[in-house]
Write a sequence for this structure.
């Protein structure tokens, strides 16, 4: 299976690493989501995109929009996890990780749809990268690479990813991060799979897309003074569409469902 190109922080240039640090600090997240790691592979795309998204984050409006989006979702209920699935220390660490992914996905499904809508409407000259914010986000376990997984765990991750509509080779980072707890990841996939197969998460994804569109349109109006780049390569736009239409809006309700099953 072909993997989506990305630049991880340990492989990044000083310029990209500084943007990643600013993203974590500004969004108060301990991670940089996969879509941004992919945008970093195309020269000039990440700085322009992040500058536009950053303005929405610092306004405070994006956080309120994310909350409304989450409340609009009818998230499938998963079988609760038991002590056989994880210990208490693992539970706390996993919930912290899920919170980071859920916040990031909630931000990004709205903000990146606003970016995509704005690209349809107007073209602007590049915007200079703002000063880097402090990066005080709490730490999380290392994001594993697919090649590091055991054959059995790699098969589990590939199988669950293939059940998602529109992934087309994308392995959601949440699954690779949860691979730090192999037993929990396996238990999670067993719970998620039926709701993917019966369309429950697909319905939640479509609701997320609709609500994200409403929130994105409301956020764009105050952004008239913020420059968005023109001329994004077609391949980049195709991946951006894939993430805002499939990957992010489906992983958001999955992350929420997993968190609720841990309570």
């Amino acid at each position: 299976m072909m993997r989506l190109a990305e630049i991880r922080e340990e492989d990044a240039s000083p310029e990209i690493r500084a943007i990643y640090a600013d993203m974590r600090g500004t969004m108060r997240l301990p991670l940089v989501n996969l879509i941004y790691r992919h945008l970093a592979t195309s020269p000039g795309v990440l700085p322009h995109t992040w500058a536009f998204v950053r303005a929405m984050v610092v306004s405070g409006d994006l956080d309120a929009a994310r909350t409304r989006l989450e409340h609009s979702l009818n998230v499938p209920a998963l079988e609760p996890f038991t002590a056989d699935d994880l210990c208490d220390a693992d539970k706390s660490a996993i919930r912290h990780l899920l919170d980071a992914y859920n916040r990031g996905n909630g931000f990004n499904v709205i903000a990146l749809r606003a970016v995509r809508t704005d690209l349809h409407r107007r073209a602007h000259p590049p915007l200079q990268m703002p000063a880097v914010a402090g990066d005080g986000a709490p730490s999380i376990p290392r994001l594993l690479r697919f090649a590091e997984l055991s054959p059995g765990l790699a098969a589990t991750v590939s199988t669950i990813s293939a059940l998602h509509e529109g992934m087309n080779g994308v392995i959601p980072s949440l699954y690779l991060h949860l691979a730090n707890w192999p037993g929990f990841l396996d238990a999670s996939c067993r719970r998620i799979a039926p709701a993917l197969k019966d369309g429950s998460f697909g319905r939640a994804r479509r609701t997320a897309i609709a609500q994200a569109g409403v929130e994105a349109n409301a956020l764009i109006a105050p952004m008239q003074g913020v420059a968005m780049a023109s001329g994004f390569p077609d391949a980049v736009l195709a991946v951006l569409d894939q993430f805002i239409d499939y990957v992010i809006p489906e992983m958001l309700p999955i992350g929420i469902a997993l968190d609720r099953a841990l309570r």
